Amino acid sequence: MSEVAVVAISVAKPGFEEQLREAMVGIVGPTRKEQGALQYDLHRDLKEPRRFVFVERWESETALAAHAGSAHIAAYREATAQWVEHFEIRVVTKIA
What we know:
Layout: E1 4-12, H1 17-32, E2 37-44, E3 51-58, H2 61-68, H3 71-80, E4 84-92
Antiparallel strand pairs: 1-3, 1-4, 2-3
Helix pairs in contact: 1-3
């Protein structure tokens, strides 16, 4: 299987920026320890501070699927559901 990359964008509801940021920072460590995780970095938009961007690289789609089904991601989703105004995820593969 080939490596996949992910760009995941979350926009916090007004007033929930710091709660969402803290929750996101909290999943970085456990995720980086997952089997197949090659890169898992959290960024914040300089011009739109409510917008957070994860840039991820995974060994395979199987590794990404395991991550999506992990206990810490399920707990994160449940805890932050009311704080997120918009969520978008793109799974891509490098071509050049």
